[in-house]
Every structure is written in structure tokens, then in C-alpha cells.
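> call design_seq(struct)
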């Protein structure tokens, strides 16, 4: 994927300014920055949910994308389905055993897989959305704050899954260890544009601290 010159203004504020980068095979990029809206806006532009003011995005022909939004309420509020039927909405294979297999990977087994979707806790909703992403079989995962609402066990399971995932991951998170162990590249979205470094999160923070002391 190639991104060139993306800019976006929301309510008179420059949220993204001249963002350009290329995503290479096997990249796992953590998008960080003080303004969370910048990352969310970039992800929504990448999946085509909103349009940039300027700039372009070019995806490879074999790319299939799966998106994990920070706000997942539209997927669950007022949805009167149990979790098996909720998953069935997104699956070509409609069999219960197939769908339960994906729910089971996110710890919904037995009667838990028949819970109503509209009564789930924040952490359970996140686990359902991750099950849905696994079901899609996409080769590009875009995750906006997936560690929010998850307990340590679930974060560790997600972390391990993404580390073993052989394709592209674009994500944001507040969890230092999650970023450190998952990302091989850091892109910081700033007021003036972006900083792009192919290194771990700890290495990036160390370099940033050295730059701060010099300046």
C-alpha cells in the first residue's frame, strides 16, 4: 500500500497533515501520537469510511482488509441476536460448529456462545470483534485500540496471535508492552506531519528522548 500526501481537517482543526508512507510486506506498524483522533481518522480513510481532503491511497491488488474500530457500539447496540447468529452475519459458512470454532478461540464456549450480543461487556465485545476479524481471513488487519477493555490474559493472547500473523498489521494501542512486542515499525502522527522509524517501540522512545535532550 502506498499513501501519498494525506491531509484531513475536522471542525477546523488539522488532524492529519501531509501523511505519506509505504507499507511493505510483513510490516507491523504502530501508529502513535498525542492526538488519538489522528490515528482513528487515518484508519477510517484507509478503509474508505471517510475521504481525505487531499492525497491518495493505493492498495495492492491482492489485499483484503479487516478493520477493528475503536467504537464498536453500532455492531452490538439494539442487536437482538445470540453470538452464534451474530457471527453468522459475517460468514459464508453458516454452520454452527464452524462459527463456534471462531468464538471458542476468543473464549466463548458452551452456553457463552449463545449470549445476547446486546448485553456483552466491553471486553466481551472486543473479543467478538476479534473473532469476526479472524473469520474474515484478511491479509491486512487494521486495529484501532484493540487492547482497550481487555484483561491481561486476553491482551497476551491477542499479542501472541499478532506476533505469529504473517501478514500486515496496522494498529494503535496504549499498551507499551503490546506495541513493543508486536510492532517492527513506528509511525508517530504529529501536528506537523509524521515521523516514520523502522525499529521497536523502546528503541523509538530512546531515540526520541535523545533528540529532546539535544534540542
Amino acid at each position: 500500500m502506498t499513501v501519498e500526501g494525506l491531509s484531513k481537517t475536522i471542525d477546523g482543526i488539522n488532524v492529519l497533515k501531509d501523511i505519506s508512507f509505504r507499507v511493505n510486506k510483513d510490516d507491523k506498524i504502530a501508529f502513535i501520537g498525542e492526538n488519538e483522533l489522528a490515528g482513528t481518522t487515518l484508519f477510517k480513510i484507509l478503509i474508505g469510511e471517510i475521504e481525505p481532503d487531499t492525497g491518495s491511497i493505493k492498495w495492492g491488488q491482492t489485499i483484503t482488509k479487516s478493520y477493528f474500530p475503536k467504537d464498536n457500539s453500532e455492531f452490538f447496540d439494539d442487536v437482538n441476536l445470540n453470538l452464534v447468529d451474530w457471527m453468522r452475519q459475517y460468514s459464508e459458512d453458516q454452520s454452527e460448529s464452524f462459527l463456534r470454532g471462531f468464538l471458542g478461540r476468543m473464549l466463548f464456549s458452551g452456553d457463552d456462545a449463545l449470549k445476547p450480543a446486546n448485553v456483552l461487556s466491553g471486553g466481551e465485545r472486543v473479543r467478538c470483534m476479534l473473532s469476526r476479524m479472524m473469520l474474515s481471513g484478511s491479509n491486512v488487519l487494521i486495529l484501532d485500540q484493540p487492547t482497550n477493555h481487555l484483561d491481561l490474559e486476553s491482551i497476551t493472547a491477542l499479542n501472541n496471535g499478532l506476533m505469529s500473523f504473517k501478514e500486515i498489521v496496522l494498529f494503535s494501542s496504549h499498551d507499551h508492552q503490546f506495541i513493543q512486542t508486536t510492532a517492527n515499525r513506528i509511525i508517530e502522527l504529529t501536528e506537523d506531519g509524521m515521523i516514520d522509524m523502522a525499529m521497536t517501540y523502546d528503541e523509538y522512545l530512546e531515540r526520541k528522548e535523545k533528540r529532546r535532550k539535544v534540542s
